[in-house]
Amino acid sequence: MKRRSLLLQFTVLLLAGCGGPSAVTQDIPRAKQGASPGAAATPSTVALAGNAFITSAPSGATEIINSNGLANWTSPTTITSAWFRVNAAGNVTVAMDAKLAGSASSTVRATVNGTPFTVNLAGAASKTYPIGTVNVAQPGYVRVDLQGVSKSGGYFGDVSALKVTTAATLNYANDAANYYWSRRGPSVHLGYTAPANTEYFYNEVTVPAGQDKTGSYYMANGFGQGYFGIQVKSPSERWILFSVWDADNGAKTTLVKKGAGVVDNAFGGEGTGGQSYLVYNWAAGATYRFITRARPDGAGSTDYSAWFYAPELATWRFIATWKRPATSTYLTGVHSFLENFIDTNGYLERSAQYGNQWARSTSGTWTELTTARFTGDATATNGQRMDYAGGLQNGRFYLRNGGFFSPYVPVNQSFTRPATGVAPAVDVNTLPQ
């Protein structure tokens, strides 16, 4: 997960929660301003490298999106889709920057929000080819699909960008250094305020049917030093994942013990630490329960433990206990998040509901947490992607991202769910070890 951006978001969350003059206000996403009425419109360049995906392709397809855009375009059944967002209804004129390699000419179909246009390409030099104009009925994302029709040689062409002309303000990924992150899509978070000396945190997560896309991480129980939740690793494998970062001074987190069938190893890439996971075929539509515990060991380290309850098993499963050195704390910064970790799947929508959050103190008192602060990462706050939402749904909090949906829900606001008033029916002293 995006550790640096997440830590920044929860620093912002704590500041915003203080209110008054120091409170953080809503970030205004950066946008490309359209032409004013009556002015000559200047086309905006929407690079496919940061805004397009291969959304349909046959087995063995060669098409890719690379730093130059769409390349290796050979199959007439492959569909490449690009998106940009307009903030107002009105006419939108689209063209594309393309060149031919391996063919003297080709014909392609460009479909803009469902309206098809035929585009004829010719010559090896890069040119801007007009596509057409559509009327967009309301603010939101505009989708452009590209599909080959015919070609004189082996390739339909290389497409680097769309050229978009409109009076509306546009949002699209324009930070080339961070196209990987914009293609992954915005990560969104829920931050809860737990009492001091919280030893246990309890949460429940439901992934609606059809929202369990490959590459999704539905993180239930995050805290200042790690996180715990469920993932879709591939079409055939799902994980229950519990990870704890190494200490701030670089000292390594070590495994104390783990549950049956749990795999443990070190992780890297976005921070380093200890990772433990159980391969488990959890199901969309079911509600899963999560408990994390933090307990200082009295010798300068803290032990972090995690348990997972599956309704189909009707029992708690112990995942692992990790010891983090140079740390002496109970649970702080408790939160949940939703993210996509496969950039080529960043066009797929996912969502989850998070409900019935409770914190248990060292004295054994349960406190219900009914308020959550909704935040997003830099991909969201910088306007690189605006397909994100969060809030209340069926009495629970929810998070949603990906899929280029509209409208979005602004980040940096708090939501309060109805209290259940019923503490978790679990005896933490008898949880399996």
From TrEMBL:
Coiled-coil stretches: none
Cleavable signal peptide: 1-23
InterPro entries registered for this protein in UniProt: DUF3472, DUF5077
Domain DUF5077: 46-168
Keywords: Signal
Protein name according to UniProt: DUF5077 domain-containing protein
Protein source organism: Pseudoduganella ginsengisoli
